[in-house]
Each structure stands twice: as structure tokens, then as C-alpha cells.
Write a structure and sequence with these properties.
Distance between the termini of chain A: 35 Å
Largest interface: A-D, 50 and 50 residues
Largest sheet of chain A: 7 strands, parallel
Number of helices of chain A: 11
Oligomer: homotetramer
Strand order of the largest sheet of chain A: 3-2-1-4-5-7-6
Enzyme class (chains A, B, C, D): oxidoreductase
Number of strands of chain A: 14
Pathway (chains A, B, C, D): Amino-acid biosynthesis; L-arginine biosynthesis; N(2)-acetyl-L-ornithine from L-glutamate: step 3/4
Shape of chain A: globular
CATH architecture of the largest domain in chain A: 2-Layer Sandwich
Keywords (chains A, B, C, D): Amino-acid biosynthesis, Arginine biosynthesis, Cytoplasm, NADP, Oxidoreductase
Order of helices and strands of chain A: EHEHEEHEHHEHEHEHEHEEHEEEH
Pfam families (chains A, B, C, D): Semialdhyde_dh, Semialdhyde_dhC_1
CATH superfamily of the largest domain in chain A: Dihydrodipicolinate Reductase, domain 2
InterPro entries (chains A, B, C, D): AGPR, AGPR_dimerisation_dom, AGPR_type-1, NAD(P)-bd_dom_sf, Semialdehyde_DH_NAD-bd
Number of domains of chain A: 2
Strand content of chain A: 15-25%
Structural class of chain A: alpha/beta
Chain lengths: ~350, ~350, ~350, ~350
């Protein structure tokens, strides 16, 4: 049965990625696309790679007839998103890709995002969208909050280990390598090709990256106590992809066993054979996540490396996976395309 | 109705691209994969990005039971291909991705490839696989010869113009920019990342690129007389994609009209509005070809720029498009995935 | 004898490149750096790669005491440059890196740059800064206009051929591949890494690139008649470098001989052996220009390919080469650093 | 006073980098270049970017008259190097860039390099070439062993901290990002542009990277006890550069103070202001190393990030710095060129 879909904020990278994935989705039909500053333009003038598709022109949100829409993806900037969603019909199913509804605690939101939340009721209603761990809640949800792309990667690596109590919670270090599309289509000097090529730079070093709010919330909930991890993000000269290298205290064999069992039946999470190291390009433009485990010459140390595509599994692919559940479809519908390599 | 597919030479880039595209093809089932030097290995050890798929291990060609196969893609190196295909059951449908059957003339083959053809009968039987221009022949063919990726790009830009007689045949210049995957997964110094990054280099300058053999054959046939174009290929620091910039003598409006009409009903060929210039990334990992036309300040000059992904529309996507026809399927089956951008 | 140098507009790429080159120049001393919006900041906050140098802070132009300055490099944006230079002491030697003084004809300037020139007297005074062809004038000049980087590349390829009358002036086609730093440190969407990586796009197609104004002026002067060339620029996924592929009607041997002789004694222009093709990376971060010549299978056609680094030989290196002459130094002083490879 | 220099193994990247740096060195004169497989060829056929230089052709080592040579750089592969150096006149000063003489302990060498050392006496004679920490020994040495490029980076970050006893020696984690030229000009599949672009992959995970032998040796010597660090290297899509992110237990202010004081008078080591994070591109093609320090939200944790160019400061630049000392020159001679940015 076809479902009518709206994408709010279709002129950014996650919006374009949603359109790309829905292009071959068997039951989703794009009925509305919005882009405030570009309202009135055809999508192909913003993203010429979509010119072969028969898409509605970009519209303003207030011009959309939501009574015809089954589900809306909201790919708007943080803060804008909560204002827009608060005005949508409260029966409309929504998958939000911004950071606005990821943190359940209003204070935590204020701390990490620098201002009070303006839609507290919605914040309480929203379900955290890490599909593999919130399936039942997502199936029943009206509003799902897409996770941070880096937050998703780290959680795939560590949630089962924290649950199983097989790693030392006081020694979790995550070294993050993140490609530039995670910053969106924004005009910032450090995102220029001339600056980023042949470059690597740490940023938000020392515990200031906003996705730490998600790690704090989720890991503490699993651990049953306050848990703080250490995270150093680095911007890398690539367009799509995240690699999270996790330095842990624990037994490698045990860690491998826990991860293997946890994801044995997951369609999108692949735990590699013990000692094999995943590479970022192996998941490009796909909804897959690869995880590798290796022991260390220092006894009791183990390294877990996870990789996914920030725009697909880390954002728009995850959003469609969640929408499939919310609309009663098979979770994998439209998402089984193989990674693009090379 | 499902069709059983074999891929001979699955351990190279075009082989992997075939598998990637077939992963979401509704009626093709991969029944056999071969890779001589890697026979016995699982495909995931050669291409870990395919590890989520349930694929047969790489086998040796002589171990394949072709009685169960409806169509074989042959992604072997030039010269090897003709030897292998000559030994296959002569009822088996074959799409060859090598250069072995592109040239109908035995002498031309010997000239461009430096040795006599060893399967002349097959060479005469083979149909040239430029789908948009050989549809009927391909539908009826047993053996189809995939075109050169650069040759495809140039022909999409120029065939309708030569047919229509709207450009000066003695002044056709093609400046080619080609990404590195066109050279395959071969260990050559100039393909190393350290050599190719921040680099551009012309090669086969002066009329020695082998795809000229295809241009000569096809363009001469259309023109009804010997026709020689000028071509300078350049290797660019990118992985996928071809841009062909064609310098022509002709009227821009007329040229645009001819191309627009020629491709009006083609599902994969997009002629951009007059004056718009296509960019390589807009067709990445897709079966689409974008073509742009611009006039010049010098009267009577026109520039036509065409771009496609060498591994998809230029090779494996084209091969599947042809296989669809040969097996009685809709030509676009499994090929409508949108380009990956950014 | 040391010379005191000021760099006006030091916060852009050409400004940084001037500082880099002067860092090892034996007789130039940087006495003042300006950057209006960043006045008051240390240079290392704008360009941390220069933090080891003992440089003056960025100042405003009006705060510079030009009586202590022997020569000023002006690396300001077009139009700003002419206003600033008009206010400088008229005895100060100036090398301008903008486009403001490249065109001798006021009408040509107005046509290509879209507004009337505001410093016509200076425009007449300025000497065109293509060192190899204007040495004597530059030595005697007070104001030298740096050439366009693409314009320099094309002229190195073609000036001797036009002078010698060995190519057909009505069939000159130049296909340009230009790296992104040529556009400066400007926040434009198409210069983002996520957009430019894996991309190639033609721009200013059809005869609208501003450097055509320089080609028209210089080539017509040599030819003794109006001469118009055809030029298609392409932006490539690289940071530094230009490759100009020139399609010409002429005899390859003759063309090679003319170029070889023309540049036999030039320290920075290398004509490669007949048939060898230059690559962009071979001149990176250096003041060298490599030129290759190849015949074609079509009799009477010849391809000339020239490459240089747009920031060095195409701009800041050329500027220092000119400043050396203006200050009575050896032309090559500070410029003999070998290219950075790989 | 000029010094006559030979470069053994000039056809690789470190050989070419030596030539590049010596091109503007005021007192070094290149008298001999060797390259066994390419003996007889001009250097410009192996590295066309050096064609403007007046260089001797590549020769075989046995054809060099070492009586005319003051110092030889040996840029040969591991294992070959020890065999070659053992045959050189024992009065010849030698800077070896291979791994052959880095480890003082014969057993450690055998363990990390998989075979017994064949020149034990030389191994004992060799001085470890980390200039900033072995100056006096290097000045007096005949044979200096260049350090590993990654080993150099990590030691610049950590040596002063271990010496000062301000970090917990049992919790040292180093996450390494290394560009591809560190692997040399070798034909390996994972170094192909098509494989490495848009890719990141961990390798030698778990304590198997050979440079750990150097860390073990040097850090244990400073600490006065066996010290084992944890290291995860990652190959990144870049050509030059290393970033080492060190996760430490210690007080950030103290750590910053120790590093600042340690390097206050060093010409090539720049400690950035507290909290500033270095970026890889800021040291490209130069002999500089940038180090940044940042505290963490978790008390008692500190992150130190160091970056340098593997081919310059990590290898050939270091070698020249050492040669300067060995030949009685100022240590910085020929090495003060500013980084190439962008």
C-alpha cells in the first residue's frame, strides 16, 4: 500500500539523501518537498542529480496540505525543527532528523544546545530513533527523533558491551573520524575543498561535542548510573562516512562474543570475523554498519571499530528504517542497496 | 520470472559493480561467480562491502554448470574474454564487458589491440551494446559486446548530431576527463593515491587511445564515409566518472534541438536545458547520462559536454540494461537508483 | 641589499603564498601585512601554518607607513585594488595581483569586468606582468599587473607559436582544467569539499571567462589582427594547479621546435621532449611551467599541453619574479624551490 | 663550505624528498644518486618534477666513488640498507632512513622485523636520529638512524611528559592517522586511488605496528622501566601527513606547561596556545611539527595532538637536520621553507 510522504527541508544533504533512497522505495510516494528560501524552485535546480525524477517543486511549509500526507520527514536545522513540528497536525507521523528531540531531559537539551527547548511536550513524546534498540517504541510512535550520526556509530559499537557489563565503564575512549557531509551544505571556511583536502583536524576536543549528550543519556540509562565517555572528533578529507575507534578495557574474545550475538539477526549490522578491521568505504551510500574487534598486546585491552555512512545509516537511511516501522512495513524496505565501491 | 545469472571475472571493479546492481534487481539471481586466481574464496574476502549478501563463493570457470545459467556477464580482461567465451555453450546468452567484440572489423581489432582476433566467428556475431542505438539487435542477440566507457560517453554526445548532419565532420575534437576506476583494480604506479591526488595528466595523446577504434567504426557507419575524430584523454583525481567536452562546428540551437529530440523518450539520457553544464558528480553510481549544450562567442562554434559514471552507465549498468532486453525484461529494471550525491 | 616589502590583502591564498615564498627569499623583508576585516590579528590566527615566522600583525592599509616600504604586493580583490593603489604614494613600486590592470583598453575592461575603470591613468601606466615576455618593461616599471593564472598558462603554450606564425589562428581551442584555489578562499557552495570531491564541472562555457580578455589583448597584439580563441574552463577536484590542453592546426615538429627554442634559456619554463605529456603535480608549489607537444593521427593537428601552479607561477611566484626585476635582483631569487611531489 | 652528498635509493619518495630539500640547501651538493633497477636513467625519467635540476643520472651503488663523498643518505628498503651500509667505507658519514638501525637491541629487531640483524656492530654504533633529543650524539656520530615517521610524531608529543613524570604511564593511548606516502611508492592494492579515496581503515590494530618497537625502546629508557603504549594506526585519504591523537591521564595545565617549556627554544617544534588544535595541512611539505593540548570534561584526562609531514620532518627533513649537525652546519640550514598551504 502506497504511503504519501512529505520531506520538510529538502534542500540540504539529508533531504536529498531521503529523496535518493525513496526513489527506489516500493511503497513511499513523495507528495511534498519544502525549502523555504528556495520555495517555488524545482528540486532539480537545487540538486541536478535528481532531475530524472518526477518530483514536486519545493514549496513553503504553510502551503502543504498535510491531510494528504501519511508521514513527514523533517530535515530542518536544529531549533527550527521544534518550532515547525509543533505547528504540524498532531496526528501526523513525523520522523525528525534534527537534534531537537534526541535528548529527553530538558536541562540536558539546554546545556548542550545553549537554549531552552520550546516544545517540551513533544520532546517528552518523542522516541529515540536508534532502530535496533527501540523497535517496539518506534513502531508505536507518532514522533521519532533521528539520532546523531556519530552518536549512532558509537552506540552500535558499545551498547551491547555496556548492557552485558563486559567493559570497564570508567575507561571508554572514542576517537572519531567524520567526513564533511556531516556538517551539511553549509558555507564554512574549513569545509572548502582547498582547506579540507590533505587535511585532518580535531574539533570539539575535550568533551564539548553535542553528540556526547546522547551518549550520556543512552549509556547512563543502560549502565544504571551516570556514565561519561571521552570523545575526540576529527574532520577528515572525505565526503561520506564515519569511523569510530573505541579503546576499551575488557577481554577481546568476550567483547567479540557479545557483539556477535547481539547483532546476529540484525539485517544492517555486520560484525566482522574476530581481528578483521572494517573500512569506511565498505559501507558508503548504504544502510549498513560494519563493526570489527581486535585484542591488544596489552592484556585486558580491546579495540572496537565501527563504521557507517553518516548520511545513510547515520541519518536518512535510519529515518526511512524508522518510517517503515511506523507505517507497518518491513523494516528493510528500500534500504537493501549494496554499498557503492569503489 | 527469475533469471539465473553468472558473472565471470567477478573480482574486478566491473564485476563488483554488476553484483551491486543485481543486489536490488527484482528478477536476476546470481548463481555463479568466477575469479580464477581467487577461486575458492568467498566474495566478501575480495570485496568486503558485499558481505551482507548471500553470494556463491568465487569458482573457476570450468567448475560452473552453465546448463543452469540463463545469462553470463563476462567481466574478464581483453583477450582472455574471447578465449573463454569461445568455450561457453553456444546457446548461452552472454554480455561481454571486455573490448574483445566491440570492433566488427578483424583488421581494426588487430590494429588497435596489437594481435589477431582468436574468435572471428563470434566477433561477427556480436552486437555492439550501445543500448539506445542498437535496441532491436540487442533484444535478438545471443552475444552482446559492451562498449568502451569513454566510447559510450562520446557517442551519446555526438551520434544524433552526425546522423542529422548538423556538425562539420572534419572538426570534431573531444577532450576527455576520466576517473581512475576506468583502469580497473590494477597495480600501476600512476594509479596510486599518492600519485593521482592533486594530479591531472593527459595520456594516449595524439590519437592512440583504443576507444578511437569504436568511434571510427560507429561514426563512419553513421556518416557513410571514413570519419576520424581527435581525442585527448586525461586521468583525473576521482574514482568514478567521465566528462567528455566536445568542440564542434555547428549552430548551438540546432545542435540542442537535435539532441533534445533524439533523447526525449530515453529513460537514462538527460539533455539539460540550453546553456546548462552537467557536472560529473550528478550521475555518480547511477545509470544516467547528462548532456549539456552551449554556444560560443565565436559564431558557428558549439560545445557539447556529456557525463556518465564509467562503472555504471559506461559498463556494468549498460550491461544489465542489455541483459534486461535479452531476457525480455523492461530495459530499466534494477537501474533506476538515483545518483549518489554528495 | 634587503628590500622592505608590504603585502596588502595578506589574508587570502595569494597573500599567504607571497609570505610562504618570501620566507626563504634572501633579500626581501616583510615589513607590513594588511587585512582590513582582520586588522589587529596576528597572521597566525588567519594562517596557522605561518606561526613559526616572525611576522607583523595584520594592519589596516591607512596605518602603514609606506615611506619605509620599497615595494608593495597588492593581493586585494578586483575593483578594490584600483581604489587602493590610486591612494598609494606614486613613487612606491607596486606589483598588483588582481585583474585591475591587466587590460590596457578601458573599454575591454568595462566589458569583461562589468564596470568602468576608476583609475585610468594607472591602467595606462601598468605593465603586463608576464615576465618572460615583458622583462625590459617590468624592470623599468613602477606598477606591474600580475596576469590571470589561466591566462599565463595559455600564453606560455601559445605566444611563441603565434609569433612564429606556425599555427592556424582561426582554429585555436583551449580546454582548461583549473584547481579550486584559483577561486580564492571564498565561501561558495561549489567550492565545498563535499561538492567538489569526485566532481568536474565546466564553467564560463562559450566564451565568457574573464581571462579571455587577456588572451584577446595579448594574442591580437602579437598576431597584428583581432584574434579570438575558444576556451572551456573546468573546475577539478584539486587544490593547486592548472592544465591547459590546446588543440591546434599546425605541424607538430615545427611547433615543438619553436617552443623549444623560445624557452631554451628560460629558468622556469621547461619544454618536455617531443611526445612527453606534462602532469599537473610535477609543478606543484613551484614557479615552474611544463609544456608538452604531441602530434596527432590526423595530419596537420598538434596538441600542446601546459601546466603550472596557479598560486605560484600563476600568481604569487610570478609576482615575486617581477618584484625581483623591479628591485634590481636576479629574477630567480627565492623561486628555485623544487616542486612538492608527491 | 660545500659538502658532497650521495643519495642511495633515490627513486623512492624519501629519496625524491631529499633531492627536493637539497635543491635549495646552500652547502649540500648532490654528487651521486643510485637506484639499482633504474640505474642509467636520468632522475627526470623517474621524477619529472625534478627535471629543471642538474642532477647526476641514477647509478648503481658499486659504481659510486665514495672517496669524493662527505655524507651519504641511505633511502633503501629495510634489510637492504644494512647490507649496503656494511659495505660502505667505514669512514663515510651515513644517515640511514630505513628501519635497520633504529632498534639498539638485536632481539627487539628480530622480533619486530622478523629476522636476525646482519650488521650487529653497526647497529650498536648507530645513533637514534630524533634530533631534538639526541643532538650531541648525532653531532659526533658517523652513522645516524632516521626514526620512524609515526614514531617521531608520538615521541614529540610524549617524551617531555614521560621525562617529567606528569602522565600515568599505564594509560597511554595513541590514535594515529597516517597519509599514504608513508607506505612509499609501492604497488599495493589498498594504496590505489580508487581504494583509498573516501576511505579510512585501521591497520596493525592491537599492538603489531613496527614503530611500537621504537616507542618501547625510547619510552622505556626515559621511564626507567618497561613501558608499553597502545597504538592504533589508520590509513587516511591524503598523501602527506601524520596526526597523532594521544589520550592521557594527567593535568592539562601541567602537561601544557611541560611541553611549552621543553620546546621553547626548538626551531621546528611549535606548541600551540592551550586549547588550540593543530591541523595536518599546516605543516605540509615542511620540517615543522605542531602540538596542541586540551583538557577534558573528565577530570584528570588530557589530550595531546601532534602533527608533522611524514616525508619531511618524519623522514627526509629530519635526515637533513641530522646531516647538518654531522657536517658542522647550522641545524636549520635548508629547512626553513614554510609549509605549503593550501
Amino acid at each position: 500500500m502506497p504511503h504519501n510522504i512529505a520531506i520538510l527541508g529538502a534542500s540540504g544533504y539529508t533531504g536529498a539523501e531521503l529523496v535518493r533512497l525513496i526513489a527506489t522505495h516500493p511503497t513511499f510516494r513523495i507528495k511534498a518537498l519544502t525549502g523555504d528560501r528556495k520555495a517555488g524552485q524545482p528540486m532539480s535546480s537545487v540538486f541536478p542529480h535528481l532531475r530524472h525524477m518526477d518530483l514536486p517543486d519545493l514549496a513553503r511549509i504553510e502551503d502543504i496540505d498535510f491531510s494528504q500526507i501519511d508521514l513527514a520527514f523533517c530535515a530542518l536545522p536544529h531549533a527550527t525543527s521544534q518550532a515547525v513540528i509543533a505547528e504540524l497536525p498532531d496526528t501526523l507521523k513525523v520522523v525528525d532528523l534534527s537534534a531537537d528531540f534526541r535528548l529527553r531531559d530538558a536541562e540536558a537539551y539546554a546545556k548542550w544546545y545553549g537554549k531552552a527547548h520550546a516544545a517540551l511536550e513533544l520532546q517528552r513524546e518523542a522516541v529515540y530513533g536508534l532502530t535496533e534498540f527501540y523497535r517496539d517504541e518506534i513502531r508505536a510512535a507518532r514522533l521519532v527523533a533521528g539520532t546523531g550520526c556519530n552518536a549512532a556509530t558509537g552506540q552500535f559499537a558499545l551498547r551491547p558491551l555496556i548492557s552485558a557489563g563486559v567493559i570497564d565503564l570508567d575507561h571508554i575512549i572514542m576517537d572519531l573520524k567524520a567526513a564533511s557531509s556531516g556538517a551539511g551544505r553549509s558555507l564554512k571556511e574549513h569545509l572548502l575543498s582547498a582547506e579540507l583536502s590533505e587535511n585532518i583536524k580535531g574539533y570539539s576536543v575535550g568533551g564539548t561535542h553535542r553528540h556526547l549528550g546522547e551518549f550520556d543519556q543512552e549509556f547512563s540509562a543502560i549502565a544504571g548510573r551516570d556514565l561519561r565517555v571521552q570523545l575526540t572528533p576529527h574532520l577528515i578529507p572525505a565526503t561520506r562516512g564515519i569511523v569510530m575507534t573505541c579503546y576499551l578495557h575488557g577481554d577481546a574474545g568476550t567483547v567479540f562474543g557479545v557483539l556477535s550475538r547481539a547483532y546476529a539477526d540484525e539485517p544492517f549490522i555486520e560484525v566482522l570475523p574476530m581481528g578483521e578491521i572494517p573500512q569506511m568505504k565498505d559501507v558508503r551510500a548504504s544502510n549498513f554498519c560494519h563493526i570489527g574487534v581486535a585484542g591488544d598486546r596489552i592484556p585486558g585491552r580491546v579495540t572496537v571499530i565501527a563504521t557507517l555512512d553518516n548520511l545513510t545509516k547515520g541519518s536518512s537511511g535510519q529515518a526511512i528504517q524508522n518510517a517503515n516501522l511506523m507505517l507497518g512495513e518491513d523494516e528493510t524496505l528500500g534500504l537493501m542497496a549494496a554499498p557503492v565501491y569503489p
